[in-house]
Amino acid sequence: MRLAEQTGDREEEAVVLNNLGLAYHESGDEPHAIERFEKALAIQHDLGNLANEGAAWSNLGAIHYTQGDLQSLDAFVRALALRRQGKDRRGEANPMGKIAVVRHAFGDDEEALRAFQTTLQIDREVGDHAEESTATMNTGSVYMAQARYAGAVACFGRAMRLQEQWGKSGGAHRPAPVRRRRPGAGRCTCRAARHGKPSRRIGEPHPPGRAPTGARHAGRRSAVRR
């Protein structure tokens, strides 16, 4: 950290701050984690790196979500806006999916379904069959919560067919159904986003990279993870 400050490498400083935030989060010290993520966010904003700024917002959103805080929704909305500003169509799907998860978690199932439908549309446009399967499964989970069983069965069946069709060539992974959360319900246990493609469920924050999609780390996009 001191070296990055001394050399004036602000991008490296932001990466270090994110890693510190992750370390504090893993140790359960959320206030210090939020402080570090916010500092990293400010640097990415100053640098004009839209993708990494969006990733930083998603990290903050993941922290707020694990605390049952509706501020997570605002963070993911900001992350989505930055993806759109950067004309990153593929990248839009991740924060949109997280917005859907938060909507569902706080009981707004109709808005959650609309957000998942938008996510599905993007996944189909960009040909991301693995994430299309996940979004389809999550849509089915919302239908299940509403006791709309015919719709749930249709979604689960389509998700299964997508996995059968693209599982080997498309890199599809087992989709993780969304789950209703209560405010203050504790830490999210989803770890899928730590290893490559994130699940639509909100995972833990992750260190971004210098590359636009947050490379330099084999894992996520922005809890939060594209």
Question: How would you describe this structure to a colleague?
Answer:
The protein has 226 residues and is an all-alpha fold. It is 63% helix and 0% strand. The chain has nine helices and no strands. The longest helix has 18 residues, at 30-47.
Order of helices and strands: HHHHHHHHH
Report the structural category. Answer: mainly alpha
Number of DSSP strand runs: 0
Low-confidence stretches: 168-226
Range of helix content: 55-70%
Distance between the termini: 27 Å
Biggest β-sheet description: none
Q: What is the radius of gyration?
A: 17 Å
Arithmetic mean of pLDDT: 77
Strand percent estimate: under 5%
Number of helical regions: 9
Q: Tell me, what's the shape?
A: globular
Describe the structure concisely for a colleague:
The chain is mainly α and 226 residues long.
Detail the topology: elements first, then pairings.
Blueprint lengths: L1 H6 L2 H17 L3 H18 L2 H17 L4 H15 L3 H17 L3 H18 L2 H17 L3 H18 L60
